[in-house]
Design a protein that fits this description.
- The complex is a heterodimer of chains A (116) and B (113).
- By secondary structure, chain A is an all-beta fold.
- In chain A, strands 2, 5, 6, 10, 11 and 12 form a six-stranded mixed β-sheet that branches.
- Chain B is mostly beta strands and 113 residues long.
- In chain B, strands 2, 4, 5, 6, 9, 10 and 11 form a seven-stranded mixed β-sheet that branches. A four-stranded antiparallel β-sheet of chain B has the order 1-3-8-7, with no helix packed on it.
- In chain B, strand 5 and strand 6 form a beta hairpin.
- The chains are: A mainly beta (116), B mainly beta (113).
């Protein structure tokens, strides 16, 4: 079974500062993918970034980067230069080869609030 | 805009009733997934279809059923509704079964009174 743990229910950051959202995972899958999604108050789920378990380099997408530490089973999301529009719920998720990559397992999420 | 369309966006109904949620995947995506998001359970995978066939089943109740049609749109049917079925129901799609990225629709918010 797969499990995603996000220990921070809420995070506060000031505009233009960097913030790290924590994610740890547990899986017996030899191959898996890790994802971060953003859910603003409007409710939609927005894909942010993906990291494959065999990728040598940490994934980056604009202001988002994924700090992947395989031995520690962590996949933290780093948002650089926070903007007011970054205020949202953030979910870490994974899926693995044992589930045929079919299902995404989500964490409980972290609410990020960016203040001016 | 993810390209995944869900209707209706909001739905209010009574216990015991039946509703149908509809999803149109992104153009070219063959795989459709249904997820339920509630305050107490978080995001739960319900079911996946690929090119019309059921591929994976998660925590889907027997009162719920789904299908994917030849034009690849999908419907999630919820029957004998209970108060606890109130949730945000998401549809997601991907090009293949195993691709990394899932694109989510905006969700259908169901309220059961």
């Amino acid at each position: 079974a797969q499990k995603i743990t996000q220990t921070q229910p809420g995070m506060f950051v000031q505009e233009k500062e960097a913030v790290t959202l924590d994610c740890t995972y547990d899986t017996s899958d030899p191959s898996y993918g890790l994802f971060w999604y953003k859910q603003p108050s409007s409710g939609e789920m927005i894909f942010l970034i993906y990291q494959g378990s065999y990728d040598q380099q940490n994934a980056t997408e604009g202001r988002y980067s994924l700090n992947f530490q395989k031995a520690r089973k962590s996949a933290n999301l780093v948002i650089s230069a926070s903007q007011l529009g970054d205020s949202a719920m953030y979910f870490c998720a994974m899926r693995g080869v044992n589930s045929g990559y079919s299902t995404l397992t989500f964490g409980k999420g972290t609410m990020l609030l960016v203040s001016p | 805009d993810s390209g995944v369309t869900q209707t209706p966006k909001h739905l209010i109904t009574a216990t015991g009733q039946r509703v149908t949620l509809r999803c149109s995947p992104r153009s070219g995506d063959l795989s459709v997934y249904w997820y339920q998001q509630s305050l107490d359970q978080g995001l739960q995978f319900l079911i996946q279809y690929y090119n019309g066939e059921e591929r994976a089943k998660g925590n889907i109740l027997e009162r719920f059923s789904a299908q994917q049609f030849p034009d690849l749109h999908s419907e999630l049917n919820l029957s004998s509704l209970e108060l606890g079925d109130s949730a945000l129901y998401f549809c997601a799609s991907s090009e293949t079964m195993n691709t990394g990225e899932l694109f989510f629709g905006e969700g259908s918010r169901l309220t059961v009174l």
